[in-house]
Every structure is written in C-alpha cells, then in structure tokens.
C-alpha cells in the first residue's frame, strides 16, 4: 500500500481517503480482508495510534467491519459502497466545475468536450 501524504490534512484522514478511493475504484472488494492496524502502520510508516484512529473512523462510517478477533474487512453493504463511489464522483465533478467555470464555457460545450474525451479515453483503454 502506497499513499503520498500531504502536510495539509491529518494523516488518519488521508488514510481514510485512500481507502475510499480504493473502494470506489474496485481495488478493494466487498468483504476483502485488509491489513491489521499494526501492519498498516508499518507499511505506511505511521504511528500505530494513527492507523487505529483511521480504522475506528472507517468502522463508524461503515466502510469496514471487524467481528470479534477476526481481521478487519471491507464492508459488504451495497448502499455504503455506492455512497462512497458517488462521493468520489461528486468531489471530482466539483473540482472540475470550479476550474471550468472560471473560463465561462457554456454547459453544452463542456458536455460535448467531456463526452469526446471520455469516449476517446475509453477506446484507448480497450486497445
């Protein structure tokens, strides 16, 4: 696991964000076992308390679950998984809109360009 940490946000928040991104991309499957708190801390070279806090928050958000002494796993709750994906899409769209609004481009033109680029990117990915 590799995360590029910034100096702006708390580390545990960045760990949670990374997990959300991996879930949204489908890299983490529902029910998949994730590293223990100690393993995560070692992998990321962070304090074990930071990993513990991230896991605690993710459990409260319903992103992960831990049953008894079993390893922690990604949630199987389809509603939570869908909401994580929607959250990631919304954040990306908002960033895009904020940047595009500054040049006063009509929505119809923006949508046309986005569709062309999306289709071109999809074709490149298939090849």
Structure overview:
It is a single chain. Helix 1 crosses helix 3 (48-61), helix 1 crosses helix 4 and helix 2 packs across helix 3. The mean pLDDT is 92. The protein has a domain at 11-78: Arc Repressor Mutant, subunit A, CATH 1.10.10.10. Strands 1-2 form a two-stranded antiparallel sheet. The chain is mainly alpha-helical and 127 residues long. It starts with 10 loop residues before the first helix and ends with a helix. It has helices at residues 11-25, 37-44, 48-61, 78-101, 107-126; strands at 64-65, 73-74. The radius of gyration is 18 Å and the shape is elongated. The longest helix is centred in the C-terminal third of the chain and has 24 residues, at 78-101.
What's the arrangement of secondary structure elements?
Layout: H1 11-25, H2 37-44, H3 48-61, E1 64-65, E2 73-74, H4 78-101, H5 107-126
Antiparallel strand pairs: 1-2
Helix pairs in contact: 1-3, 1-4, 2-3
Give a short synopsis of this structure:
The chain has 127 residues and is mainly alpha-helical. It is 64% helix and 3% strand.
List the defining traits of the structure above:
single chain; 127 residues; mainly alpha; Arc Repressor Mutant, subunit A; two-stranded antiparallel sheet; elongated; DNA-binding transcription factor activity; transcription; GntR family transcriptional regulator; Tscrpt_reg_HTH_GntR; DNA binding
